Amino acid sequence: MTFVIITHVPHILEQNQYFGYAPYVREMNIWIRHADKVLIIAPISNAFKTAIEINYEHDNIEFKTIQAFNLLSLKEISGSIYKIPTISWNLFKAMQQADHIHLRCPGNIGLLCCIVQILFPYKQKSAKYAGNWDPKSKQPWTYKLQKWILNNTFLTRNMQVLVYGQWEGSSSNIKPFFTATYAEADKVPLLEKSPIAPIRFVFVGTLVSGKSPLYAIQLVEALYENGIDVLLTLYGEGTERNYLEEYIHQNNLENRIVLQGNQSQNVIQKGYEQSHFVILPSQSEGWPKAIAEGMFWGCVPIATAVSCIPFMLDQGNRGVLLTMNLEKDVKQIEAIIEDEVDYQNRREKAAEWSRKYTLDFFEQEIKKMIQTK
Fold first, then answer.
1. What are the C-alpha distances in Å from 153 to residues 150, 157, 159, 168, 311?
2. pTM score, two decimals?
3. Which of 173, 223, 262, 285 has the fewest Cβ atoms within 10 Å of its own Cβ atom?
4. 49 φ, ψ (degrees, to nearest 5)
5. CB-CB contact of 20 with 12 (8 Å)
6. H-run or E-run covering 175
7. Phi-psi map region of 111: left, alpha, beta (phi>0 left; psi -120 to 50 alpha)
8. Alpha helices in 68-153 (DSSP H)
9. What is the pLDDT of residues 111-169, one digit of tens each?
């Protein structure tokens, strides 16, 4: 079986191996175990490999480079007009070779894929919509168009679209799904934790405004000002790093808040294991892996009520749903810290829920969607 992956994720070529963002590649390595040949259509990056990139694990991989593009301004749209025909033709040729077409959405390349796949109604197809499928959420028009095409059973046939959460108006194309990081073998007993000083928080994600790392810092800062011995470790890099460093310095928080940058999965796992809470005040999410991972290791999750997060946190019964009102959110967290029975109850519920979604279960579900030949 020839398995074709089309994605906007930039890849790095090093020593004849292709590397990409680790959570994405780790997931794709499960899909491609069932393929004889893998054809990857994606942009190539000239950046150097870091700790958050890993390689594909397959003996028969062919890579076809396409250019990235965006539609954020008139200038960028006009520049993209020259790229789109070539990209579309390359997508068409790749889909012709496929026994199974796998699309990664949302994104600009994902939008072209959604359009081109219409020409292959009899090919077996799947799409991973890694963003927020909530039809009521505010999203770019390109995202809404992709969702409309994928949901339309006349335009999009023989397709299973994996989305996070269950939403009204979903067609038979749409399959509520999940993602996973850890295996059944990782389900070792949780380390004992009590909400005693220092209370440790962990943030894992890109340091950009959409993830609201500053709000995570301000939450911990407010708890500290209220007399609670707290520590926050942030893992990740991004455009806001310098601003966050300056904020930490100006507010004398160096002994309370540490930016660790991009780290390996093992380092981050230890961060979860040592922390009482995992926090992600994100403005938009699909399935936030950082929250599910922290829950797996016994962290009480603190996150905004976007996408499927209310489902993940059982409407707050196994975590804290942020209101993004600092005073109210601080009170919510303080109440849990001061009530050990409540803390332990939420912690155990969080771990029990997250540990249902293992890589073993994920692979079982993937196998059901792929017809091996």
1. 8, 6, 9, 16, 27
2. 0.87
3. 262
4. -65, 140
5. yes
6. strand 174-177
7. alpha
8. 74-80, 84-97, 108-116, 141-151
9. 999 999 999 999 999 999 999 999 888 888 889 999 999 999 999 999 999 999 889 99
